[in-house]
Amino acid sequence: MDVAPDIFIIYLILGMVAGLMAGLLGIGGGLIIVPVLVFTFVAQQFGSRLEMHLAVATSLASVVFTAVSSAWAHHRRGAVRWDVVWRLAPGIAMGALAAGWSARYLGSDVLKVMFGVFACLAAGNLAWERGPSQQRDLPGPAGLTLAGTVIGAISTLVGIGGGTMTVPFLAWCRLDMRTAVGSSAACGFPIAVAGTLAMMLAGWDEPGLPVGATGYVYWPAALIVALASIFAAPVGARLAHAMPVRTLRRVFAVLLIVVGVKLILSA
Fold first, then answer.
1. Alpha helix locations (H) across 103-176?
2. Helix, strand, coil shares of the chain as percentages rounded to 5?
3. How far apart are CA 119 and CA 30, in angstroms?
4. What band does 25 get if pLDDT is binned at 50, 70 and 90?
5. Torsion (CA) 132, 64, 192, 190 in degrees, nearest 10
6. Alpha-carbon distance 82 to 131, whole Å?
7. Fewest C-beta in 10 Å: which of 37, 47, 226, 232?
8. 214 phi/psi in degrees, rounded to 5
9. Where is 178: in which H helix or E strand?
10. What is the pTM (predicted TM-score) of this model?
């Protein structure tokens, strides 16, 4: 599991940037982690057939650790609606497990296009911050299970903690934004755990995996990125009160579009 010094530095910087952006802009680190890991894995010559699967699964594994830290921080501030989290969790787990297992049947190019399209859609939401035209109360158990299944499945296939979808959904259901963000952070844990387990099992007997991988999860990258992001996220949260966040959101949105289009064209 030895990592070359230059690659170690890339993973470390990636984790720090992902943590800073998560704290500063309130976005999931997966939107940053996945594309950078793809390009890094290409440089490490892991093989084009596996690079996207490894990037998505490794991103999810890193989210397992950061989700615990984030959820605890929001819980201490009373910003997590645990009743909502528990009602979303079964659907999230089912969606994440199903999507993670199905990833073995999807080519790397398909996953690249899916991530690219999702990144462009997330960029639009990030840049314009358009609120929903209508709002409604939280749906019943069946509705929350369905919503959780969709969120868990899509989040797993693109390697994110789900905040890009969970926060708008909960805000649409009339939870105040602080509670929506905190509850979304808690939902990131079941997404990441179920998605990581499914991606590990899906790639368990995959030939050509790099040393240090369990299934599609490449642990050296996952652990370094997770540790760096955990320490950097609180710094980003503090900077949010001193920097022009609206401008930064739009700059990052442009970057997301560039990365998303690049991945789509490389498929």
1. 108-128, 141-158, 163-172
2. 75, 0, 20
3. 10
4. low
5. -80
6. 24
7. 47
8. -115, 110
9. helix 177-202
10. 0.88
For the chain, the average pLDDT equals: 86
17, 37 contact by CB (below 8 A):
no
Q: Which two tokens stand for residue 116?
A: 């690219």
Nearest to 34 by CA among 210, 211, 261, 260: 260
Please report the DSSP string for 209-258 in residue order: PPTTEETTEEHHHHHHHHHHHHHHHHHHHHHTTTS-HHHHHHHHHHHHHH
Give me the residue label for tokens 């290409």: 42
Does pLDDT of 203 surpass 90?
yes
Amino acid (one-letter) located at 36:
V
**pLDDT tens digit string along 209-258?**
999 999 999 999 999 999 998 888 777 767 766 767 677 777 778 878 88
pLDDT band at 96 (very low <50, low <70, confident <90, very high): very high
Please, what is the end-to-end C-alpha distance for the chain in angstroms? Answer: 29
Contacts for 233 with CB less than 8 Å, ≥ 6 apart: 19, 20, 22, 23, 66, 69, 70
Helix and strand totals (H; E) in the chain: 10, 2
Q: 100 with 202: CB under 8 angstroms?
A: yes
pLDDT of residue 92: 96
Which string of b and e fits 193-224 if b means at least 16 CB within 10 Å? bbbbbbbbbbbeeeeebbeebbbbbbebbbbb
| Cα 166 off chain centre by | 11
